[in-house]
Amino acid sequence: MLLGPALALSALLFAIGVTGVLVRRNAIVIYMCVELMLNAVNLSFVALSTAHGISGQVFVFFVMTVAAAEAAVGLAIILAIFRHHKSVNLSNINLLKG
Amino acid sequence: MPHALLALAALPAEAHDVMALGQELRLPIALILGLPLLGFLLNGALALWKPDAKGAVSLIGPGVLIAAFGIAVAQYLKLSHLWHDQPELSPVATLWNWLPVGTLQVPFAFQLDQLSMVMLLVVTGVGSLIHLFSVGYMKADPGYARYFAYLNLFVMFMLVLVLGASFPMMFIGWEGVGLCSYLLIGFWFTEKANADAGKKAFIVNRIGDFGFLVAMFLIWQTFGSLDYANVFGKAADASTHLAGGATITAITLFLFLGCTGKSAQIPLYTWLPDAMAGPTPVSALIHAATMVTAGVYLVARANVLFALAPTTQAVVAGVGALTALFAATIGLRQYDIKKVLAYSTVSQLGYMFLGVGTGAITAGVFHLATHAFFKALLFLGSGSVIHAMHHAYHASHSHDDPQDMRNMGGLAKYMPITATLMGIATLAIAGIPPFAGFFSKDEILAFAFGRGEHTPIFRVYWAMGATAALLTAFYMARLMAMTFFGENRTGDEARHHLHEAPWIMTGPLVVLGVLSIAGGWLNLPEFAASLGTPELLHHWLHPILAAGDRVAETLGTAPALPEGGAEHMLIGLAIALAVLGLAAGFFTTLKARTVPAHDAPPEHGFWKVLYHKYYVDELYDAVIVRPLEALSRVVLWKQVDQGLIDGAGVNGAAWASRTLGWLGSRLQSGLVGGYVVLFLVGALYILGMVVWR
Q1: How near does any CA of chain A get to the CA of B655, in Å?
Q2: Is the pLDDT assigned to residue B82 strictly greater than 70?
Q3: Fewer CB atoms inside 10 A, N or C side of chain B?
Q4: How many domains does chain A fold into?
């Protein structure tokens, strides 16, 4: 059974994603890291479905659908930000500062 | 309720009678109370929307009270018949259940027994006469309708006070009459002095009311009830272990504190002389005949409790005697005709407390009734004089004081009816037989002397009372001489306008004059048995006072009337003092060459102290009012209000929320990364909780 290594890989990918979100400033890269986290979760689902039945694999489809929708909306927002600021560096985007 | 049903319930026959009678009395009592209330509502409505409808007010104001008096007389006739066979019958008419709180049950109930019957007749009877007098006295006043609205409301509350069947019911009336007193003292509130006098009366009375409230709490704690029937029944049953104890002494002392406020005794009497700022008929009704006697009524009502506390009795009698003497000396050197009568009232109330404090409840109530007659007559008579003086000065555009006796003199020539009737009242209050005051005052003094046999302090009280009697005769004779005799000092121009009052004012005076002469027949002493049936009032009140008398018998504090030589000595002394006081007062005043107020020289020596009322008001001002004001200004206002409430409370709350908001806003960096870190920390925390819980 590859469950242990699969989950370890999933955790590693998720950690890379989190680290990327935390340390990078470029909106595109952060976005890609978010996708990485989603897919790390997908990997866990698939791996765990061997032990807990088919529902894990079904859930992966939902995650992929949501990720596709998120890609559309997220990229559109990033484009809009770029048009406004001529930059996608999140350090410059702090309009919500209290 | 059908008889068969009650027979099944196996109630004794008498209980049935009382309950049925109580049911029967609901309508008359509701009418007696409702008529003055209706008068208040109608007159109040007229005062608001049609203040010029004086005809309607003249009809409604006295009308409702005369009707109430008629109903009261009908009840008297009916009940006195029943009481002849069953003296213990004291029916309670419950109108509705008012305060049902757990074991505390206070129904809105009224009790019509022999004592409340006396008070009911005095209040509605004398009240009716004073209402009629007011029609003439207040005719030209723009606040005519408002005046009668307040007066009707006062009578309603006074009736609640005397008819209520429990301490809270009495307290409703007690507070209500205080309110009406405040409203009527400050009736001409556009003058600041009058409004201040009203406030003074109200505030001083609050101190007494505090005592009444504490007494009620203690009664509730001790007896578990506030109904007269329960409390006095239990007190009489438990007399052996209650008697002389701290509890009963505290209860009665706090009750008496209430009395000193309402009935103007030392140390709370200062409001009553100032209360003369109100219209004169108000002084007659509220501040002489009825409201101020509420304290005497309270002691008479709670006679069992007071009989159980001999210490309190000594305090009550002592305060009464001291007040009687103290106020009488002040009355010697007052020039305002109403002020003299006001101090006289304080002094006479002192007599009543001397009586009830001695344990001679009948004598106290007797003096209450006779005092209501002759003092109402004196006040209304002075009202008639002031009315004439006011019109004379008004017509001659003079600004002299129409109440100052130095501006009067020789008025008997211009107003013979008023002068004659006030003369009768003077003889009555001075204690000349056979006028009403002689019998009641003599009885009080005799009982005080009698109780002195076992408790020597009462001999001192008796001596103070006797001296006060001499002074009473003196200042009343001085009042008569200054007002009605000698040379007229009103002023040449104003003199032509002096005239006797109209019949609507002299009529009630005549009735009160007859009562001042005949009032003594209510309770003739044994030695005057040749004049009529003796001790009518004593026998009449016996069912109410029997329990208290029994307690006093067991404690050995029952006052005994002196007999034989001592009795004759007392009577002779009383008459001698009265005659001496009257003669001295009359002739010294006539000889003294009084000059009108605006030419009067300043007072000297002890007269000055008396003129300034022993500076008691100034003393209270310096000891209580000013420190209180200073405390309010320096501590309460500058420190507590501005410092604590405004500073720490209001501004502090604003500062705290602003600081907290500032702290919170530091979190809003606007950087997405920061938010994600927080999000992650939170997520890890929750994860940790789930895993390592």
Answers
A1: 19
A2: yes
A3: C
A4: 1
